[in-house]
């Protein structure tokens, strides 16, 4: 782990902006990190806390995952996803809205999920889990935030890695809820962040056995070089939870090929090779 920490710091040092990360080996509980308490903008990574809060509400009977919800004008916001391109009135289950939020990072579906639990409830759930640096300030598309990612939502590498590790241990809300959240995050359509350099096949799988190797993850991207990710990696040789945040920088590339994404790719691949890849 000492050698891995050195390699991850070398990668982070090469980033021209700010880069923080944290990692927990799920077998040994060893924990390594770089500036894990630094408060960073989350972009769409805040959708993991929203998902957890939604499952808390379901566990407590405040919502049902199989309830039907309707996509309405007040949910619509631009950015990633598909609902903003559809007509209002589309119906789906609560769980389907959560799947859209996580697998294609649908911003309008995220607002549907936020409205089911409330912004304050998301923040209260994070505090109950001991995550003091994770805050959702507003619904997605709220004009009061302008284009400042730090006015939308923030967290830290330490908070997110602890949250992902808790889910991975089946200790977040309940074993059933944790497993379903992992199941959703294993099916993401986007592999732009920490798992971007892993050998994904055309079926979005790591090899032939989905039980032997998988990654459950959620990433985020915004202006000013904001690139983020939280993930649980399971491989033939081991498993670990990891989070990483990038902000600023003036490196080459844009969009999926941005410097921040490239940094996240390298961080995830180094950790995968050290802790989870087949020997």
Describe the protein in words.
The structure is a single chain. This protein has a single domain, classed as 3-Layer(aba) Sandwich (Beta-lactamase). It has helices spanning 2-14, 47-59, 94-103, 107-117, 119-128, 157-168, 175-185, 259-275; strands spanning 18-25, 31-34, 40-41, 68-70, 91-93, 135-136, 153-155, 214-222, 226-235, 238-247. The mean pLDDT is 95. The chain contains eight helices and ten strands. Helix 1 (2-14) packs antiparallel against helix 8 (259-275), helix 2 (47-59) crosses helix 4 and helix 2 packs across helix 5 (119-128). It has 279 residues and is an alpha+beta fold. The longest helix is centred in the last third of the chain and has 17 residues, at 259-275.
Brief summary:
With 279 residues, this protein is an alpha+beta fold. The protein has 8 helices and 10 strands.
Give the topology string: H per helix, E per strand: HEEEHEEHHHEEHHEEEH
Q: What count of domains describes the coordinates? A: 1
Strand residue content: 15-25%
Please tell me how large the radius of gyration is. 18 Å
Question: Which fold does the CATH topology refer to?
Answer: Beta-lactamase
**Major β-sheet, in short?**
5 strands, antiparallel
Helix content: 25-40%
User: For the terminal residues, how far apart are their CA atoms?
Assistant: 16 Å
Average pLDDT score: 95
- With helices defined by DSSP (H or I, 4 residues minimum), what is the helix count? 8
Strand order of the largest sheet: 2-1-10-9-8
């Amino acid at each position: 782990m000492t050698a891995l920490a050195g390699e991850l710091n070398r990668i982070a040092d090469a980033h021209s902006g700010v880069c923080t990360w944290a990692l927990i080996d799920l077998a040994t509980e060893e924990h390594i990190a770089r500036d894990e308490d630094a408060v960073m903008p989350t972009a769409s990574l805040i959708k993991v806390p929203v998902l957890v809060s939604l499952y808390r509400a379901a566990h407590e009977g405040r919502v049902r995952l199989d309830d039907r919800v309707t996509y309405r004008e007040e949910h619509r916001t631009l950015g990633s996803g598909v609902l903003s391109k559809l007509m209002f009135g589309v119906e789906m289950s609560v769980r389907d809205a959560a799947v859209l939020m996580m697998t294609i990072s649908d911003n309008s579906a995220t607002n549907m999920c936020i409205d089911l639990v409330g912004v304050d409830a998301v923040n209260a759930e994070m505090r109950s889990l001991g995550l003091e640096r994770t805050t959702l300030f507003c619904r997605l598309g709220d004009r009061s935030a302008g284009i400042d990612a730090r006015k939308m939502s923030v967290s830290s590498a330490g908070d997110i890695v602890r949250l992902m590790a808790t889910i991975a241990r089946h200790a977040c809300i309940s074993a059933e809820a944790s497993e379903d959240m992992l199941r959703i995050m294993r099916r993401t359509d986007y592999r732009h962040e920490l798992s971007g350099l892993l050998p994904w096949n055309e079926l979005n799988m790591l090899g032939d056995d989905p039980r032997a190797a998988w990654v459950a993850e959620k990433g985020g991207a915004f202006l000013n070089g904001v690139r983020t990710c939280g993930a649980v990696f399971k491989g033939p040789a081991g498993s670990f939870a990891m989070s990483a945040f990038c902000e600023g920088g003036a490196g080459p590339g844009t969009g999926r090929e941005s410097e921040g994404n490239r940094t996240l790719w390298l961080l995830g691949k180094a950790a995968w090779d050290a802790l989870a890849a087949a020997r």
